[in-house]
Design a protein that fits this description.
Elements (H helix, E strand, L loop, with lengths): L1 E9 L2 E10 L3 E8 L3 E8 L2 H13 L7 H14 L1
Antiparallel strand pairs: 1-2, 2-3, 3-4
Length: 81
């Protein structure tokens, strides 16, 4: 399964955000930048949580090169609550 969450145009760059995966493998977020650069990472075991992460990344205009660092920060914040 792969679902487009949305896209944004920023400084001449096109960023697209997707949620992908399955219940057995987990769900992840994929960010593509103008068909040149792509990053993906499993972020949750349920679709809704992965969708929320993808929407947050879109609102914050996260680029593919920063995806793993941002996910790591989100996981750290979740563990410190």
């Amino acid at each position: 399964m792969r679902k487009c969450v949305g896209n944004i145009e920023l400084h001449g760059r096109s960023l697209k955000y997707y949620v992908f995966g399955s219940r057995s493998a987990g769900f992840g977020v994929e960010i593509t930048e103008t068909y040149v650069e792509k990053a993906e990472q499993i972020v949750a075991h349920n679709f809704e949580e992965a969708l929320n992460v993808a929407q947050t990344l879109q609102k914050c205009s996260v680029f593919p090169t920063n995806l793993s660092e941002i996910i790591e920060d989100l996981e750290f914040q979740g563990n410190s609550d």
